[in-house]
Structure formats: C-alpha cells, structure tokens
Amino acid sequence: MEAAEDKTVRVADSEATDGPEHRQPEASDDAVALMSSFEPEELQRCVFTESLVVFSESGRELGTFNVTVQYAQKAQQPCLLLHAQSHGTIDGAPCGTTVTAFISCELEVLEEEYHEYIKLEGHSVDNRCHLVQKDGRILIEKVTTVEKEVTKESASYPMSSLRGLITEGSSLLLMRLITLRKTVPENMQFVTLDKQLNIIHITFSDLGEKQMEVSGEIRQVFGIQRMVHSGKGRLDTWENYFLTNGHLVSRHQVGSPVTMRLLQQPSRTEGPEKVSLTQVESSVDFLERQKELKEEYALYLRQHPEIRALVSDFMQFLLLRKPENVYQFAKEYFRPFPIP
User: Fold this and answer.
1) CB 175 within 8 Å of CB 103
2) CA-to-CA separations, 313 to 55, 72, 310, in angstroms, rounded
C-alpha cells in the first residue's frame, strides 16, 4: 500500500500587536460580558438531549442531528460537556460531523474536538481540528486527509486575542441560553476561527417569533440567525428556530439543500432537565473522588506488580482450559494450598 503524503503547515503563532495593519478582529466588550452573565440556573436549563432529522428539499430523509449537554469537569473545574453529531448521506455519499466541547460556566471553550467527513466515490475527505487552552494560549491543530494526502496545520494565539471566542460547539450552547432569555442582544460581535485558522467575526441576530408546525401541532418558536463573516463581504448564514424551553426545532444554512427539523417535540410538562446546585456540587465531588480513586488504584498496582502477573497467569490458564463453570474454576484456581 502506498504511503500517505504528509504536509505540515504552520498557520499562525500570533501575539497581540498594536497598529491597524496588525489588528486582528476582536470581540466587542458587550459580547464578552454576555458570555459571563449567565446564572447557574440558566445553565442548568440547558442540560438536555435533543434529536432532529435531516431532510432534503424534496422532503426525503437524509440523516440525523443530535445534541447533548451535560455537566462534567475539565482541568479540575466544573464545566459543561457538549456533544453534537450529524450523520447522513448527500447524493448517496456518506457524510457527517461530530463536535465534542468542554465549555466553562463563562462559555470559554476549554477544549474542543471537531471532525467532519464525506466519502465520495474515489474521493474521500476527512477534516479533524483540535483546540485546547494551555499555558495562557489557545493551541489549534488541524489535520486534513484527502484520499492519501495528509495536510497538517497548526496555530497558536494568546488567550487575549481570542476573548469572546465562539466555536461550533459553544455556539449551540449560546443559542440555547439566548432563547431562554427570549432576546438577542444587539450590536454584539464575537470571534471565531475560519477553515484556515484565522480569526474572523461571528454575530447573532433576532429573527423574531413565529408559529411553526412541530409533529402535527402549531407551536410558538423563537428565531436566531448566526452569521460567520468569512471576509471579502462573504457571509455564511444559519437560521435556527427554538421552542421557548430551548429545544431546537429547525436549523438551516442559507443556500444549502438540506434542513434539520424536530419531528417529536418534548413534552410540555417535561422541559429541560432540572438540576439543583446541590446536585451539581455532588456530581463535581463525585468526579473529583473518582479521579482520586483512579490515582490511588494506579499507584497500588505500580507498587504490586505481582498482581498483573497473577491475573495474567489466571487468564492464560482459563483460556487454555475453557471451563464451562468459570466461577467454580476460579474458586479452585485461587483455593489456598493446605498448610502441612
């Protein structure tokens, strides 16, 4: 098999620099303030899972889109873990996108993994991008695979350059939070990264309220338009509509032949999962204790290498004999030798 070609490109290693010729796009102060303004109770109301179906313009079902938000812990601090996944086919070609993001309670992206692919006949494309905060900087590594050719790109920015950063993952959480407040603040500019890992602006605007059919029932929905300013006057625009409880009803990229729609609406009585602060603290305590136990267990195993040898011997003997009654076999294997 022919080895894949590997090309490595250093995209950016940026420092904040004064002067208009060096000035990077920046988030507005109001946008940064909004990100840290959400109360714990508002974040709690965003902890739920939703599933949408992807349709073509003709109404043919093409795939699914799922989003889950739950509490987690990253770098010894409580945070939210968002996992979004879409899979389907376009013109018969399998394609999909997966986003996993750890997001702080101030909506800072602590770490995010983004993966998208499309498998055309004789031509497959796979993109992976990893972003993480480390030592006061945000590090980005991107790997693009086109058939056998692999291109690696990287970028590094001081965190001050990416104040107000909104990624694919955190934008989904931000729109849930905005929906719960039922208002989109005006004149706010956030920043994001384009496909070349350059800093660009991203904005959100109010599409207003309207009625939309959801699983045979007319419901009131709230619209948010997300616009990614890709430069040279080009805008990539998404129109998103939500129920008042934060559940996504419809998602469509302007100009795209596909639309994501909610088919089975959540119960009026259920709403997003309610989680008390005590439950959150208990969850964090449990995760911290779980981590401590893993470290204790690992240390004990390092101090007693005979455990691994003993278990390995037992497994080899077990697979050699293949007994019907494993419990009885183990009992006899580990039975103490009689003391003479």
Assistant:
1) no
2) 55, 38, 5
Handedness of CA 46, 48, 49, 50 (dihedral sign): negative
- Tell me whether residue 243 is exposed, middle or buried, using C-beta atoms within 10 angstroms of its C-beta: 0 to 12, 13 to 18, 19 or more: buried
* Residue that has been written with the tokens 């904040």 in this structure: 16
Q: Residue-wise pLDDT tens for the chain (340 aa)? A: 344 445 455 555 655 444 344 578 999 999 999 999 999 999 999 999 999 999 998 999 999 999 999 999 887 889 999 999 998 887 788 999 999 999 999 999 999 999 999 988 778 899 999 999 999 999 999 999 998 899 999 999 999 999 999 999 999 999 999 999 999 988 899 999 999 999 999 999 999 999 998 888 899 999 999 999 986 777 899 999 999 999 999 999 999 989 999 987 676 444 444 555 555 555 556 566 666 777 788 888 888 877 877 787 788 778 888 888 887 888 777 776 554 4
Sign of CA dihedral 176, 179, 183, 186: positive
In this structure, the strands spanning 137-146 and 248-253 are unpaired
86 to 82, 116, 134, 172: CA distances (angstroms)? 14, 9, 29, 13
Instruction: Locate the DSSP E strands across the chain.
Output: 5-13, 49-56, 61-74, 77-90, 93-103, 109-120, 123-134, 137-146, 149-158, 190-193, 199-214, 217-231, 234-243, 248-253, 258-261
Task: Output phi, psi for 172, to 5 deg.
Answer: -65, -40
What's phi and psi for 127, nearest 5 deg?
A: -120, 130
**3-class SS letters over 16-58:** CCCCCCCCCCCCCHHHHHHHCCCCHHHHHCCCCEEEEEEEECC
- Cα 42 from Cα 56, distance rounded (Å): 34
> CA–CA separation, 237 vs 70, rounded Å?
27
Provide the pairing of β-strand 149-158 with 5-13.
Answer: parallel
Residues 6+ apart with CB under 8 A from 106: 35, 36
